[in-house]
Write a structure and sequence with these properties.
Length: about 60
């Protein structure tokens, strides 16, 4: 599969605007941003627990 060019990106953006309208797009982006932020926070919180588990296993 090839990379997306400028034309393809513009077509996708145009379709999104037609489907959702100009007023809904900021709300969708806000929801997407908060979802990504929550995922990053959950990943950060999970890393110390995983590293502690590995340390305990290596000690045994």
């Amino acid at each position: 599969m090839g990379r997306l060019g400028l034309t393809e990106i513009l077509v996708i953006v145009g379709i999104v605007i037609l489907l959702f309208g100009g007023k809904k797009i900021p709300e969708l982006m806000k929801g997407l941003g908060s979802g990504i932020k929550e995922f990053k926070n959950a990943a950060k919180d999970d890393q110390p627990a995983a590293s502690k588990k590995q340390e305990e296993e290596t000690k045994l």
